[in-house]
């Protein structure tokens, strides 16, 4: 049994070896957290990397593709841009394309989204009574992606395209 073998290995270690293993594990975890927090600061996004979870953006993105996001306040949202947004009451963010923008006289912008593979816009996904998204709903905007090549030959090339 795997867990018993692990415990036997731990029992055979002296205190110094055990301390060294715990320290190594702690350094790996803290390094990963520092890298993630650093990416958050650099990109301005609470989630600098997201995974596409549905087929609503096919053929542009497929399930399992990784998107690299930025969320710079000074960059205006444009029609055709791919945004990741969060709807109040839902934990999982949605990846869709900006379909329309509505700008008020005071410069306040609202926008409507739609999945490339969906027949209708996203108004049915928004919370009750909400017809437009606002900048506060945006987690980030897709600036690059990482996916497997889905060619006829089924080669497993990987693509990384970044627009910074």
Account of the 3D structure:
The mean pLDDT is 84. The radius of gyration is 21 Å and the shape is elongated. 19% of the residues are buried. It is 24% helix and 28% strand. A hairpin with an 8-residue loop joins strand 3 (82-85) and strand 4 (94-103). Strands 1, 2, 3, 4, 5, 6, 7 and 8 form an eight-stranded antiparallel β-sheet that branches. It has helices at residues 2-12, 15-43, and strands spanning 49-51, 66-70, 82-85, 94-103, 109-114, 133-134, 138-148, 158-162. Residues 37-127 form the Peptidase S24/S26A/S26B/S26C domain.
Summary of the model, kept short:
The protein is of the alpha+beta class and about 160 residues long. Helix content is about 25%, strand content about 30%. Strands 1, 2, 3, 4, 5, 6, 7 and 8 form an eight-stranded antiparallel sheet that branches.
